[in-house]
Amino acid sequence: MTGPVQSIERAAAILRLLAGGPRRLGLGEVAASLGLAKGTAHGILRTLQHVDFVEQDPATGKYQLGAALLHLGTSYLDVNELRSRSINWADALAARSGESVRLGTPLEGKVLVVHHVFRPDDTFQTLDVGSLLPLHASSLGKVLLAYGTAPLEPALEPGLEAYTRHTLVERSRLSRALAEIRERGWADEVQEMSMGEAGIAAPIRGHGGLVVGAIGLSGQLERVCDSQGHPRSSLINLLREAARAISRDLGASRW
Amino acid sequence: MVARYVMSIDQGTNSTRCILFDHHGRLASVAQREHQQHFPRPGWVEHDAVEIWRNLQRIVPETLSGAGVGAEDIAAIGLANQRETTVLWDRATGAPLGRAIVWQDTRTEPLVTALRSDPGDEFFLARCGLPPSTYFSALRLGWLFDQVDGLRRRAENGEVLCGTMESWLIWNMTGGPDGGLHITDATNASRTMLMNIRTLTWDEELLAFFGVPRPMLPEIRSSAEHYGTARSLLPGVRITAALGDQQAALFGQTCFSPGEAKCTYGTGSFLLLNTGSDLVRSRHGLLSTVAYKIGEQPPVYALEGSIAVTGSLVQWFRDRLGLISSAPEIETLARTVEDNGGCYIVPAFSGLFAPHWRSDARGVMVGLTSYITKGHLARAVLEATGWQTREVVDAMNADSSVPLKQLKVDGGMTADNLLMQFVADVLDVPVVRPMVAETVSLGAAYAAGLAAGYWPDLEVLRRNWHRAAQWIPDMDPARREAEYENWKRAVERSLGWVKPPRPP
Fold it and tell me: Per residue in A209-231, pLDDT tens?
């Protein structure tokens, strides 16, 4: 095992120093307090500023803790911003796949639907932005669980609701499914929420690769899945392409 | 081999975009490049027409390589453009005479004031359907004739050409100084104040009034017909459509029947209602304009209501007040409260446009009490866009025989669910968003593809339109009326704030 990463130790020290008092500190003060070269301290401060953990006063150039650090436990990406940044890609996914598309983020043990694009067949459909889906029985929810965006422990409690006979309600089966999702990079849900319907979903990543939400499509079983009951690879490709495009837009570099 | 795509060029206020669309009207490839905004003096806004032409020369190949295709795969080219922006250029060299004067430019304000009192709005309305405003091209030409020595003489000799951006780009694409086509379409020409709105030809009386020599003007053509063949950029590909951007959005939203309307929600917002072959003269402050003209068919007209400040109010809330850090967060903030708390914002930052047309109005925020939080202000910001839409729709319903049954929407603000629900609530009609957000580009592509036979008829285009979202009205009628009354009282308080200058 390798030793501690020095720059992360130093970054932590800078955060502790800034948290220590109400006063903003200049670059010189930070460097002197921690015995760092000014250039080193500046590099770390700029990186912390980039991830919004530190803010610099535009007038004086002094540093303080950033707002993002204060809300570390809650989602850092506004859900309305997520919708706004995804809307063109979600539209394209619905147009190409022929199925309805939803975006989800976690909310109090459920999936909050933050965006919904109708299936492009002009039948009557109702916008369900703001509605909640179960984490363990939806493809969006399984993505959020698999990547730690939604806390896992409550979801593994006994007594999960069985919506159909296919719903994963046992801890071991759900855990295995989540590991598989992490392995292949997308989730499926085949008749787990209602019979005759299926869905697939993929993670949306922000800065540093952190998963901030999920995008998925869903529809009738025979359209989403092949005759063996596996999701069609053409749909999976379209979905992952859309998820990657949104992630790139949000600043995730590798995906 | 059958051509696979139609190319659309959208020469907009901030950028130029090039998009390829397939037979289903789906976006296949896109490239975009922004151009510089020049603000030489307060109220002046200019673009460098050469920069825009160079941008187009870069993005066309980018778009082709994005889809992995060549010129032979393109069935036709259609253009949409920022309306009213005017450029002059030398016929022999192709060099512009100064920068293009942009539609937002208010340098002709004193001239507008003078014309509205003498000869008065009616003289213009009867001929071109427009009252004098700083938007329209004729006033800019008048200003240029006064400022540039010898311009009128050179224009009379045919040495200088003028046009809106589509004229400039088509001229350059079809050969430039070496026989380039100098044309415009009826929708763009309908925004110059020089075209007769009934005959769709340059109006002799208006030309005489503004002193515009006929030889400098482009030929007015249909919005969709075979204009000519490109000689540069995409040699051999037919150019078959041109429309002003708002008309292109109406076309892209497939509002082909009388009574169908769309609203594009951007910095400002533009609501256009198809009035069919009837030219409706508004008695309620709307503009009569050409919606489109397909080939030899009779023109289709539209009523237009422009709202100056909608998205820009959210930007102001973000940049000037600093209450949010990104525009979409306005919805998050607005949802922290149940209602507006009695607060209303009338964003008459530079007067009120349709249907009031009051340049003496300025913005007001009313109903403030110690109860009001920033959440209520965020609500009031969004509701201002809803009520301004309602005022324009009321004016349209009063002017037109067919009342609005649903509103098709596009533009960036349609991502805001709270706002779209509010628009449906206050209009009391369903609001629908199409699956292709790029309605301006799509409209230009549709018109071009139609003229080139890529699509057979309007019905096929209609079938390409799909609903991506729909908001159904869900507001108690009594509450709607009470809130509208409050909004109207707020508007009254914004009027007459700017006093006329005292006589010396």
Answer: 888 999 999 999 999 999 999 99
What's residue A151's pLDDT? 80
CA nearest to A129 within chain B: B417
**Using a CB-CB distance cutoff of 8 angstroms, which residues of chain B are in contact with residue A107?**
none
Instruction: Flag whether B13 is in a domain.
Output: yes
Which class in CATH covers the domain with range A79-249? alpha beta
At A8-64, the pLDDT tens digits run: 888 888 888 888 776 788 898 888 888 889 999 999 999 888 888 898 888 888 998
**What is the value of pTM for the model shown?**
0.83
CATH 1.10.1660.10 fits A6-70, yes or no: no
In Å, how far are A75, B407, B429, B470 from B473, measured between CA atoms? 31, 12, 6, 10
Mutation target for A interface from B433, B438, B463, B467: give the one with most A CBs within 10 A: B467
How many folded domains does chain B comprise? Answer: 1
CATH number at residue B48: 3.30.420.40
Residue of B nearest to A130 (CA): B417
CA distance linking residue A218 with residue A140, whole number of Å: 10
**Complex prediction ipTM:** 0.80
- Residue A65 and residue A53 in contact, taking contact as beta carbons nearer than 8 Å: yes
Q: Is B112 among the domain residues?
A: yes
Task: Flag whether residue A91 sits within 8 Å of chain B, measured between CB atoms.
Answer: yes
Is B331 labelled as part of a ligand binding site?
no
Nearest to B228 by CA among B276, B291, B179: B179
Instruction: Flag whether B15 is marked binding.
Output: yes
Domain positions in chain A: 6-70, 79-249
Query: Does the annotation flag B344 for ligand binding?
Result: no
How many Å apart are CA B103 and CA B290, to the nearest integer? 18
Q: Is B135 annotated as a binding residue?
A: yes
Q: Out of B330, B412, B469, whose CB is closest to A117?
A: B469
In a domain, B160, yes or no: yes
Instruction: Please report where in the chains the tokens 């929407």 appear, as a residue.
Output: B409
Range of the domain at B15: 5-253
Would residue B225 count as lying in a domain?
A: yes
- What is residue B238's predicted lDDT score, i.e. its pLDDT? 95
- Contact (CB<8Å) B328/A94: no
Burial class (CB in 10 A: 0-12, 13-18, 19+), A8: exposed
Nearest to B311, CA basis, from B358, B264, B363, B273: B264
